[in-house]
């Protein structure tokens, strides 16, 4: 920890892994998204380990779910996104994949949120856009988030950048972050590492530090 002008400036994972000041964000670990990732079982297992560690330490846990709107409520940006994901040339050809109540919308059973967890639904890539996440973090006195989930190159990168812009310290648990396109995911990690806002770590290191932290 560095100090200046009465401020404490975290610089290491140990500095930010305080269960009373950090939350674990489980990003879009939904049935319909995990089914598109070739190593989803590994990511589910790694994320489950991160969740269990955070829960044991008394850390708050928040889940996001990507929500598709009915076609009547899809705007130009939503159609463009769906056309890109579904590789369709015409807006009429897309199908909303993650409608509320559909099987693909739900969190995978292994990671079913518990009553004390928060669950926020979104239609954007950043977990902060259109959700109360930032307000909830600040209201609970939290200043950092650890992130696991899918996918690094699609939603986790913009969430990390948005977190930093809002003044939160993002920690990427890289081995618990899945990818639809591995090369693109690696480029995302390298770009985030270059920018320097995020701490990039792994579930084992995260757990080893949390296991030594005082429980709240």
Question: How many DSSP E strands?
Answer: 8
Helix count equals 8
Principal-axis shape:
globular
> What percent of the residues sit in helical stretches (DSSP H or I)?
25-40%
Q: Which structural class best describes the helix and strand composition? A: alpha/beta
Radius of gyration: 17 Å
Strand content: 15-25%
How would a textbook summarize the main sheet?
Answer: 6 strands, parallel
Strand order of the largest sheet: 5-4-3-6-7-8
- End-to-end separation in angstroms reads 21 Å
Order of helices and strands: EEHEHHEHEHEHEHEH
Mean pLDDT: 96
Low-confidence segments, given as residue ranges, are: none
Task: Write the SSE topology.
Blueprint: E1 2-4, E2 7-9, H1 13-16, E3 22-27, H2 31-34, H3 40-56, E4 60-66, H4 76-86, E5 118-122, H5 133-139, E6 144-150, H6 152-165, E7 169-178, H7 182-195, E8 199-201, H8 203-210
Parallel strand pairs: 3-4, 3-6, 4-5, 6-7, 7-8
Antiparallel strand pairs: 1-2
């Amino acid at each position: 920890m560095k100090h200046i002008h009465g401020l404490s400036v975290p610089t290491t994972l140990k500095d930010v892994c305080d269960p009373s000041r950090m939350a674990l964000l489980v990003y879009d670990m939904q049935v319909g998204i995990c089914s598109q990732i070739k190593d989803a079982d590994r990511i589910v297992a790694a994320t489950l380990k991160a969740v269990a560690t955070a829960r044991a330490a008394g850390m708050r846990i928040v889940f996001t779910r990507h929500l598709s709107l009915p076609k009547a409520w899809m705007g130009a940006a939503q159609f463009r996104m769906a056309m890109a994901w579904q590789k369709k040339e015409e807006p009429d050809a897309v199908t909303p994949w993650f409608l509320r109540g559909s099987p693909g919308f739900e969190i995978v059973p292994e990671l079913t949120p518990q009553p004390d967890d928060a669950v926020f639904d979104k239609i954007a890539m950043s977990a902060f856009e259109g959700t109360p996440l930032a307000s909830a973090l600040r209201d609970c006195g939290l200043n950092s988030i650890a992130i696991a989930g899918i996918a690094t190159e699609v939603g986790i990168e913009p969430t990390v950048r948005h977190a930093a812009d809002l003044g939160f310290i993002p920690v990427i648990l890289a081995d618990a972050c899945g990818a639809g396109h591995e090369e693109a995911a690696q480029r995302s990690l390298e770009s985030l590492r270059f920018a320097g806002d995020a701490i990039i770590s792994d579930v084992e290191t995260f757990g080893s530090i949390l296991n030594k932290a005082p429980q709240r």
